[in-house]
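User: We ran a pulldown and think these components assemble together. Before we commit to crystallization trials, I'd like a predicted model of the whole complex to look at. Sequences follow.
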Amino acid sequence: MAVGPTTEPTTTAPAAPTEAPAAPSTPAIPTEHPNEAPRLTPVELVPGKALYRSVLPGVMQVPADLLLAMGRKSSLWPMTFGLACCAIEMIATYMSHYDLDRFGIVPWPSPRQSDVMIVAGTVTKKMAPAVKLLYEQMPNPKWVISMGACATNGGPYTRYDRVLQGVDNVIPVDVYVPGCPPRPEALMDSFIALQELIMEERGSIG
Amino acid sequence: MTAELHPQHDFEFETQDIFVNMGPQHPSTHGVFRMVLEIDGEVVRNVVPYIGYLHRGAEKLCETMDYRQGIGFMDRTEYLAAFNAELSFVMAVEKLMDIEVPERSQWIRMILCELNRLSSHFMFTGAFGVDVGVFGTAFTYSFRERETIQDLFEEVTGDRMMYAYFRPGGLAWDVTENFVQRVHEVLKSVRQGIKDMDGLLTDNEIFRARTQGVGVISAEDAIDWGMSGPSLRASGVPLDIRRDEPYLRYSEIDFDVITGANGDVFDRYHCRVREMRESVKIVEQCLERLTQGPILPDRMPRMLRTPPGEVYLRTEAPRGEYGVYMVSNGGNRPWRLKVRSACLSNLQALRDMTIGHYVADAVIILGSIDIVLSEVDR
Amino acid sequence: MTTEDTAPAPDLSATIWAEVDRALSGVTVEPEAGVLDLIVHIPRNEVVRGLRALKNDAALHFNYLRCLTAVDNEADGIDVVYHLYSIDKKHNLTVKTTLPVDDLRVDTATTVWRAANWLERETAEMFGVRFNNHPDPRTLLMPEDMDDTFPLRKDHPLAEIQVLQGEGLAFPGDAAGNEEGA
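Assistant: Here's a predicted model for the assembly, 766 residues in total across the polymer chains.
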């Protein structure tokens, strides 16, 4: 993060408004479709009240939760948990055509060092205990993206009794992505929505 | 085995075999597959595979679906070679109802199936490269080519992966007007891609040292285990359904059946790479012979009712023999639909191939069989 | 379901029936002309003997088991179906055997082809058919603790869709408790 211009500490006015260097938040994302649910409230950039303040040369003052949230959302490492067909679209999203690495998202095989679990594919009742175990092995803070129709509610296989009708029967889910399989752009959109969610709940998680 | 590591001792170490569980979540098990390896030091003594973590009941659900609704389930059964899966299903219905498919549809079906074989083999070389240790390079190259092919599929069918484009009798709608030119562009890019993948892996000294002589299965064993596809042909058995029991218009096309000599991991990989070149040849010949004309026969009923009967229709999918056994008792739904999965039969031979090799070899042997778990578990 | 032979003698001259008949000389066998392949029906206590004869016969040499599955015909019992292929002679055969509803046992074919191993495990857990002397009779696709119901039987119902939001939200056909929605 570049340090903004220094200000005189004696002035009563707060520091001059600076461009937020790495915050992707924009004021009030408009929704395009009349029936679309409103987006999560983004971090509002109030003019005159910057995100950080430079107190002395080389020292800046940032709210801690903001800093932590910005750090967490910029470097989400998903655990590679591709179960079925959605895994192929997830891999295609990681690859060079729809690059996810530019968001800081690096697929990581170990649950102990990953932040987000993308449940990509159908969860069967035979697999459900493994899903729960893997979720519990991830350290906090952790999030879950339920990718595809099968992980959301069973998808096309919902009438079969060996299929879990939605992964939210065993683990809590933060973002649901519809589609069978969702396009890579939809998965990128879900990551952006997750980033906004992380910024929004930044005071409430440790 | 462990006594050889310490030759200065003249007594045998008392060691215990340990059980290592690989999967169901594992970066190299290609999906939710679990195997328990019983290892002595680093040598595998026994392998117990566990499957069924993706059993979704496609066969049961197809019994409640119309013949056109069931096509979507077949796509999801083999999602990397969806056109081949749809083809078996749709041809089974056509055989039962005795429908004649127009020529243009047959050529287009062949082109799309062979392009799908190419994209599936690209996925294999990428994933196999990851197994062998080329961690990202092979994967990135192969997905670049897959995206080229998937763009073409998206222009024709509207979807990147689950096409649902074949219908009993022909196709759902005709292809785009610039189809032939687009396929030529895709083939140009694919030829370069095959050269890239070949150059990256095939003559690489480390790759050859890791894969040659590993995971050998003889022709008799492979036949007895019911293997099919490139995994069987690598052991020297020239069984290719496109040549032995031709369907569509494969009897009019000139292509070679690729076999290997040793039946090891390298041969299974190399057969697939050479098959990719054959597929390019097949697509070129089909493009020359593509005719104009209707894509559905004149009198297609709106509600498809099959007469009572049964048929076992097999086609050559990229992984082997993908068979659809359809039993009908008259009506618009199948009475029983069984999907004969190539990967399930190929996977049965895993134990014989892996015993006596190292744990790292177990990973590449599994990768060389090229399984897709949703086909194994259906 | 198999078709009834309406003609007194179906025309099987184009198929390999003559050779199959000779190979299965000690076994009760009944032919039928299928859409693609010849179908033969063998009673269940002789079926493995017949399969072994078909494999070992020099002219037929069915060394490749393509597929092994079962069909639930409700009251008529469960048919176990074997699809055979000969790699060098390039011909196909379908062998069917019928098991009565109250006694679903048949001998295992793993002694003839090793490929039958997992295929029989799957058929056993899907239909409840017991293959005698199977070397590894565990479940294949089902979880180990769910082996008491058989999903592919016709009387096994589909699952109810979970209704998650909205009290009284009804799906079409729910009033009649219809399970077989398309």
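Chain C touches chain A at residues 142-143, 146, 151, 157-159, 161-162, 164, 181 (CB under 8 Å). That may be worth checking against your pulldown data before setting up trials.

User: Thanks, that helps.
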